[in-house]
Each structure stands twice: as structure tokens, then as C-alpha cells.
Amino acid sequence: MITRAPRHIESVYDVVVAGGGPAGLAAALGAREKGAEKILIIDREQEAGGILWQCIHSGFGLHHFKEELTGPEYAQRYLEDVLESGIDVLTDTFVADVDRDKRLKLMTGHDGIKVVEGKSVILSMGARERTRGAIRIPGTRPSGVMTAGLAQKVVNMHGYLPGKRVVILGSGDIGLIMARRLTLEGIEVAGVFEIMPHANGLSRNIVQCLHDFDIPLHLSTTVSEIHGRDRLEKVTVAPVDGQFRPQTDRAWDIECDTLLLSIGLIPENELSRQLNLRFDPVTSGPVVNSCMETSMDGVFAGGNVVHIHDLVDFVSQESLLAGRNAGLYVTGERPPVDNVRLSPGENVAYCVPHTISTDRPHTVYFRVRKPLEKCSIRFGDVLEKKLSYVFPAEMVTLKVKPQFLENFHGDALSIDVVPRD
Amino acid sequence: MIYDVAIIGGGVIGCTLARELARYRLNVVLVEKECEVGFGTSKSNSGIIHAGHHSSVGTLKGRLEWDGNQRWDDLCRELGFGFERIGELTVAFSEDQYKTLEELLAQGQAKGVPGLEIWEADRVRAEEPALAEGVAAALHAPTAGVINPYEACFALVESARANGVEMRVNFPVQGLSAVDDGWIVKGSDAEIKTRFVINAAGVFSDWVAEMAGVGGFRIHPRKGEEYLLDKRLKGYVKRIIFPVPTPTSKGILVIPTFDGTLMVGPTAHETEDRDDITTTMAGSDEVFNNVRRVVPGISERDCIAEFAGLRAAADGEDFIIGPTKVKGFINVAGIQSPGLTAAPAIATMVADILRDEGLAMEENADFVSTIPPQVRFATLPVEEQIRLAREDSRYGHIVCRCEHVSEKETLDAIQRGAHTLDGIKFRTRAGMGRCQGGFCTWRCMELLSQELGLPMTEITKRGGGSWILRPREDGGQP
Q1: A392 preceded by cis ω (within 30°)?
Q2: Which H or E run contains A254?
Q3: B220 tagged catalytic
Q4: Residues of A with CB below 8 A from B375's CB?
């Protein structure tokens, strides 16, 4: 156990951080850096660090630390800094409710129900996995159907095996990582099935988890039925048509006892909805300005709760900014209000933050809707950047400097990704 | 030991009957083939206590529906499960459908069902703004309510057992032999001797009747698929919304369940296969396409879970309740909708039949009608939560983050009979929320393992072969 519970939980903090995963840890450090004194991180697990603990594979920190770390190693770096900074970490504790007075009701594992108040609040609750019910896979409801993340936790943190022969639905990164992980445990992975015509995970994962292990990837194919009364016995898979509906006349059955679902992550915004924040229907996360502040004064957000990231490095970067601004908010220094609205244009699904200002540098994150090679990112008429390829699975970051906007006098900019002339 | 009564089938009918017979000095045993009561059709039931006007007085269903409806308040008060009369609306889009509303109104009034009223379009729109613009009128029935049928099963059986009724689960009935003055009920590895047999075996009640040498009817199972929607839609409609009914089905409904989740369905399609509880693409399309016409704001994107169950529909579509040509064998079969509603009335009817058939029914003076209340931490006021968590810190320790279920409630569920993940789920709601067990599955498994002294690899989803984790070949345990 790395973190120690604070001896005394105060009733008012400068900053309360809901969620002690990589986003919350970075945000707390950012707040401390900018002068916030009493900071409390709350996390529902036994140890802060979030999902990183079960990500025992490496590939974390390439951008941020210029090293290749495992998930736990990345978490460790942050946890050590957090503890050294005197930031309080309350683990095994769940934030049940929050209100617009920034009071949070906590269910602590050991100390009953507590109410704490933050002068500012940082939302860093991360995401949950999309489940079977969300895509309504027909068939029976046996055991053996679970999300890839739950399987990862069970295998990596507790040393158990989910089954003998596995089918994975969805080529998201968690599914790809688990295809390799289970193979290394001697479990047979019959294949990875992806409903889209392109893979959804990082290219390096397709190579290192599937190609390197001869695990077949079937695109434009989905699981159309689940069979088995008590335990999964087989799945039916089928190619899909232009409307993504299974073509059952071309279906075939695969015997297996485990079906892992890696079909997407959903920002976990229950608390954000309690605060009546403005939401972006595409990201399913709160609308944020360039300070990572939500539509409610003094409530900031960072990480997967705002939009789903691929690399933890950008979670840290974005959340550090959220934390710094929470710190500034508490000490009374606020940057000027944003003056430019950003909107997703051609082939862009969403962009975060939703507004920027012309006086400071920004990093804007966005995703495209469709893959494109030899393209250009057009940031209004202000900036054009060439890229050799973009695809939805890899979030794009765009560094915007004030000098690009010197001659821009409008109040709205759109980001488009178009083929190069 | 020779029992007075053996009830075959631990669905809501068997459970209600078990609890009714517990009022008498009798040796009663309830046998159920699944690992828990209610784990057959009853847990898939829509959970509606029907208003009383749906079935005609000419049928047994019709006579027992309103009678049954009125008894749920007492049961809920004594046994502590949730029940709320939220009311229902049967909506009409046309003149023809309006006529049907008038017929239903008359049918209900003839039975003495109070409060029935036809609302015109303006009133409907004001009361339920989420309904489609084209709704011309609706029949309002305030006596309709919602329960969680599995909660009722657990509570009824707990009360029955507290008063001396025995329960045997994992007991599939494989044969029945008539002997002097009674029956032998054969399970897979045990036998029961009893004077009377009550056939409450639901979808399999015709097979049980065949085993008794009685036969006389066939069950033609009718599958219903239901879809549960994200809690975000809580309160979107306030009452149960019915379309105008057809001869075989009340139609596809929008049901605000007792816990606030909206549920849509059920479909109604006959199936030969008595194990077919699959959900289907066609069923999903049918449900959402039909619901959209009545409540346009609901879509597939709101779906978080789905399930299906089989109605035990008998030939003639009515209940088959009564003694048979063989002494001591009593049918309580063909109990489809409004079976849940009618259950308490069915139970007293069967008690009367037993009396008529010669069973001495002496009242049990020690009968205790209540069971210890079950704590639902998430629904308590915060001062109460603080007090409870101070007394027992396990109330403050979360197990299910979506439904805010605590460790103490989970442990209580295990103590009260949950030996599987589904057993915990149906008693506490852990696993029913939007993450569908992503967070709580592990915590529930650890608690089951700890309390039952079982290795994690022996914990199941719902008994039988539904293991979760596979043992290692070398037998090693992490």
C-alpha cells in the first residue's frame, strides 16, 4: 500500500479531486503548483492510480517522461510526487453525490459517511466500459461474457483466468492488449472481431498484440448471437452490411467459453450530471473552456471524463492544466475569459477544449470521423498542418500559439480535416 | 417424514402459496429446480400489479385480478418489498381505439375497480408530456402498481420458512408416483413423500401433470423480451403506458419499474422450445419501433440491459386451478398475465381447495406475518445513512457504484440466501446499473467467497454450470 489515509478528513478543502487516477493525480499536482494549500484526492479503490494498476504492459510515458513505462510505474511516479507534496489521498472512498455548493457526500470504507466541501472541484472520474446491453447482442445470458477491462483486472491484479477459448468483440486497445495477455497465459484467442471497416486501437497494438501472435482480426464483422445456458458455449459471428446490421445468411459459429467486449469507453459523468453542467453530446463529457473549467464556476475536469483518450500522457497534460487553473481559481488569479468558440468541422467528430483565447498558447485535442491519408488539418484560415494519415482511433493534438491568431478577429473557428489539394 | 403439501415450483405462485400455507399447522415443502426461488419466469416478469380492468369477468383471470390487486398493500407492508401504485394509462390514437377504452372502462367498473377515467388529449398531454402528439385519449387506472417480482419471491419464501415451511432448491422434479394416501415426488437425488401435490410448475406444469398421469392441458410457452433503459430516463413517464390490447397480449409497454429504471416490452411470440429465453434482433426492433410511436423520446441508445422470459400460456388462455381426477394432485397451471397480480388471491383459492379436498387446516397460532426489514441504504435520508455507517462501517463501504449498494447490504443478502452473483443482484440491485457489474462483480465474488468459504473458481452467476473463473490446470490458487 503506497498511500496512507489522512489522519483527519477536514470539512473544507481548497481543491477536492473526484477520482485519483492519472487525471486526478496530475490535476492535484497542478493545483499545488499554483498555490492551493489543502487538496484532497478521493478514489474508490484501495490505492490511487486508477486504471493504470491493471495495465501491466508497457508503452506509457513515451511522450511525458520520454521513457517506456508500465501502467503501475507511471502511476507510481505520480503517487510519489503527490505524497511528497502533502496532498491528502482518501482511498476506498466513493463520491456518492455532489451539489452546486461544491459539497461532496463520501462513502468511506472505514469512517462512515462524510461530507466535504471544496472551494473548487476537479472532476476526474474517468470512464466505464460499454457493455453488452448497450449494443443488445441477441441470444442467451450465460456467464463468460464480460468487458475486456474486467478480464484485465481479474487476470493482472488477481491472477485468475477467465476461460479457455476466447472471442474478442471490438478492436479497441483494451481488447487488443487482452488478446496478447490471454495468449501469454496459454488461453486460445480465436479472433478479434470489429464492426467497423477499420481497426479501433493504436496501430502499434494491432502489430504487437495481433500480428505478432497470429491472432486473426476480422473487420466489418460482429457477434450476432450468444449461445449457452449457464456458461457461454459459442458465439455466432457475421459480416455486417452498410448499416452495420449482421448479414445472418453469411454467419458462422465459433465455439468458445469467453466473450470479451472491447466496444468503447463512456465518460463516467454521473456526478457531472448532478451539477447540471453543459454537455457535449458527441464526447458525452462536459463542455470545457481552455482552462478545463466546466460550465460551472470553479468546477474543472480532465482526462477520460471529458473525452476518451488513447494515451495517458495527454490525460496528464490536460489534467495538469485543469489543476493549475483550479489552483489559480482558489488563489483568486484567473486568466481572461476565452474569446473564440471552437467547433468540429469537416471530418472532425469533436474538439476539446470547446473555447480558447487569443492571448495564450493552447493544445487542442480532436478526433476525425473517418480515416484519411495525405490530409491537412485546417484551423480556420489561421493554420494549416499537413499529416500523412489520420484515423478515429488516434486522437490528434494541435498546438495553437497566440501568434497564429494575431490577425484573427472573429469569435469562432472550425477545425477541418481535408484531403490535400 | 410425510409432508402434507409439496408445492412444485418456486415462482411467484409457489412462493405466495407457501407463505399462505405457513398460516396453518401443516408440513409444507416448496421444491424449485433452479438454485433460487423466482429464477424461472418470475424474475423476468414485468412486475406490474394490474389495475383490475384488463380481463373479463367471464374468466378465472378476470375474477382473481382485482381481488389479487387489493391484497398487495398488506403483503408489502408485512414483508417489506417495494410496491407503488403509480397508475397506468392505456392510450388510444383513433376512434376505434377509443371504443376499446370505453369497453375496458365498463369491464373494470363492472368489477368494482375504482378511479377508472378516460382522459382526453389535453389532460393526457399535461400529465404525461413525453407521450406522442397523436394520442387522442387514454384510460387512466390509478390502482395499477409496480413491484420487483423477484423481491416478492424472496420475501414470501423468507416469511414462509420463518414459519416452518421447508424449501428445497436445485430440486428438478423428474417423476411422480401415486401411493396410498399420497405421492412420491422424485428429484434428481432425493425423494419426498407428501399427501398433496400442488402443480405450480409454470412453463413445465403440463409435463408435471403428465408425470402425475393426469395430463389434460398443454402449455404453449410465449416468450417476452424486455429492455431496460438508463436511469437517466427516470421520471420520463410517470405511469405504466399501455397500447390498446390485442387478444393474446397486453402489448408493448413503457414501465417505470419500482426502482425508477424504465423498462420497455414485452414482446409476445410463441415458441416450442421451453428453454428459449433468448433476446433477438427482431424482438429489439419490435419493442423500440412500437415504443417510439407512443413515447418518441425513447431509443435503443438508452438501453443498458435486456432479458426474456416464457409465459406459461395454457390452451384456452385462462388459469387452470383445481383438483384433478387423481386424488391429491392439484393444478395451479397456465398462470400467465395477470398471474402476478392474482397471486395472493390464487393462494387463498388453493388453500380453500385443499380444505375441500380433505386437508385439515388448523391455524398456526405462532404465525409471524412480518420479516426483518431489508436496508436499502441508497434510499435512506443522509442522516440515517450517517447513523448506520457509524454503527457499522460496512454500510459506508461501496460495492456497487451505479446503484450505491454497500458491503453490509451485500453481506446481508448472502446471509439471507444469495449464493450466486444473480442472487446478490436480485436482492440488492448490485450489477443492475449502467456499468452492468463492471465494478461490483469482483467485490461481490470476494464477499461470496469469504462468506461461503468457497474458492473464487466455484462462484457462479446463477448456479449450475455458470462458473465465472476457470481453475488453473496445476490446481494453483492465486
Answers
A1: no
A2: strand A252-255
A3: no
A4: none
